[in-house]
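Reviewer 2 asked us to include a model.

Predict the structure of this chain.
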Amino acid sequence: MKRIPLLLISIALLALVATPAHAAALRPVIVQPYADLAEGVTVGPNAEVYVGLLFKGEIRKVDATGTDSLLAALPVGEGRLNGLVTDRRGTVYALLNSGEAATNGVWRITPWGDAKLHAALPIGFANALAFGPDGALYVTDSAHGAIYRVAGGKATVWVKSPLLDPGADGVGANGIAWRSGAFYVAVSDQAQIVRIPYGKGGRAGTPAVHVKDTKLAGADGVAFDVRGQLYVPSYSGNTLSIIRTDGHVEVLADKLDGPASLAFDGKALYFVNIGGNGAPSLMKAKVKHPGLPLLRG
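Predicted model (structure tokens):
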């Protein structure tokens, strides 16, 4: 997600209408509007959708009937709640950037809402996370151009590279996804996707630019479909794009409101609008090919 001033925007939810956003190829619809800026999203093993509210620190659960309820509220303080992911048991892992050593890091939330700090992280900008083939969590830090490996309740630097560094807007390594022996990382300020091989013994290989394109400026979350096509929202361009297997970047939907994280449930693609222009929401679009099954830890 992008850096957002802590001044909240007055949101007129009554003005929201459940009509599709303008789209070039997809027709996303609003599933659930929110009164606070939204950021993280993940789909659990039973098709439940979890949404993180940026400044409230709330994790909301949207069940199969569309009912929205509170799963947990984390001690966000003056900070923010960022990426979410679920394991195969339905446990949610969340990135809390509280700015306080006692609470800053990866939080673990059970399916019934019990929450505790799972692993402390350096104060920075932990933004997104994904499971690796070793069952560990891999966490991007947008401020430090790094990816941490989290295992056994401890975080260590897995890789750090100038290719992951932030630029003028302060947002470097952002969304992260696994496919075929490597992690793919969106680097927001550099308008690129970086591929990092998973080497022998779990060591990071040499990062390399996978795709660079001006349409990827502000690239946030990333998610593959089963064909190897990569879906990428841009919070600054207000678009949702797809990177074809030949590297071509195509805009599928535009005129969104700061789209950020995204997650598949079969052929349903969920994503959140951060909502800086007044429309924070969980959205859904139908796509041609189902999402690539995730590693679940």
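The mean pLDDT is 93. The longest strand covers residues 80-86. We have added this to the supplementary material.
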